Amino acid sequence: MKQSADNVVLELEEVSTNDGSEVFSLELGEGDLLLFNCDRGLRIPDVWDLFVGMDAPCCGGIRFCGELWEEMSAKQQEAQRLKVGCVFTGSNKYEAPWLENLDIDENVRLAQSMNPARSETGLQKRIDSLLDDFGMSEIPGVRPAAVGRIDSMKSQWIRAFLPDPLRLLILERPIYGMSSDDSNRFLNRVNRAREEEKTAVVWIDVALSSSEVERLNPTQEFTNLPACLL
């Protein structure tokens, strides 16, 4: 069903990243969840740069909240990206995208601390709420190399949910290797964001279980990412 233009968060208009012989279009509205549940053995491609306007498609256009990334000024792009949260894939702690010369807690705060619209009090209040949501007492205050994979992933979860407003979440295997309890906490928080904050979600995974898919209740689902986005 076509969304009202005011409610569309992410729109791909006949997009291709290769030769343009095939294109892909979609609309992702407020509270929608787009699931790419890929086959086992496939790599998780990096679409974050594409969806947030860091990379440009070879043809077509990508709109965020109604505006083409390519038509925004650099300042506008920066402001819009502060409304996007991400969890990046990684099978071990060294693949988590942290700046190695900063502690994990500094990494988590980094982007939002540069947002002139956020107060330190408001940011800390959001962090405290997320710590409770994910069953953590604190964000590790040590370098990434000293943090185990579980705490590293949970810290990514907190960073992903820090934007306020949180218009879009891009999640790459966010519960891979996590316990059932931790996974449930994350699934609950994603669904809360969809319901309460009207956050749109792009979830990319490999062989997600039927029960997990049912919990997510995606509005759109694909078995693989389109070849024209790879």
Describe it:
By secondary structure, this protein is of the alpha/beta class. It is built from 7 helices and 9 strands. Strand 4 and strand 5 form a beta hairpin. The longest helix is centred in the C-terminal third of the chain and has 17 residues. The protein starts with 7 loop residues before the first strand and ends in an 8-residue tail after the last strand.
How would you summarize the topology of this molecule?
Blueprint: E1 8-16, E2 24-29, E3 33-38, H1 48-51, E4 59-64, E5 67-68, H2 74-81, E6 84-87, H3 104-113, H4 120-133, H5 149-161, E7 168-172, H6 180-196, E8 200-206, H7 210-216, E9 220-222
Parallel strand pairs: 3-8, 3-9, 6-7, 7-8
Antiparallel strand pairs: 1-2, 1-4, 4-5
Helix pairs in contact: 3-5
Characteristic terms for this protein:
alpha/beta, Rossmann fold, 5-stranded parallel β-sheet, 4-stranded antiparallel β-sheet, 9 strands
What is the radius of gyration computed over CA atoms, rounded to a whole number of angstroms? 17 Å
The CATH architecture comes to 3-Layer(aba) Sandwich
Give the number of domains.
Answer: 1
Mean pLDDT: 91
At the fourth level of CATH, the homologous superfamily is P-loop containing nucleotide triphosphate hydrolases
Structural classification: alpha/beta
% residues in beta strands: 15-25%
What percent of residues adopt helix (DSSP H or I)? 25-40%
Number of helices: 7
Classified by CATH, the class is: Alpha Beta
The secondary-structure element order is: EEEHEEHEHHHEHEHE
- Let me know the largest β-sheet: 5 strands, parallel
| Uncertain residue segments | 91-95
Let me know the number of strands: 9
Strand order of the largest sheet: 6-7-8-3-9
- Mass-distribution shape: globular
CATH topology call: Rossmann fold
| Separation of the first and last Cα atoms | 26 Å
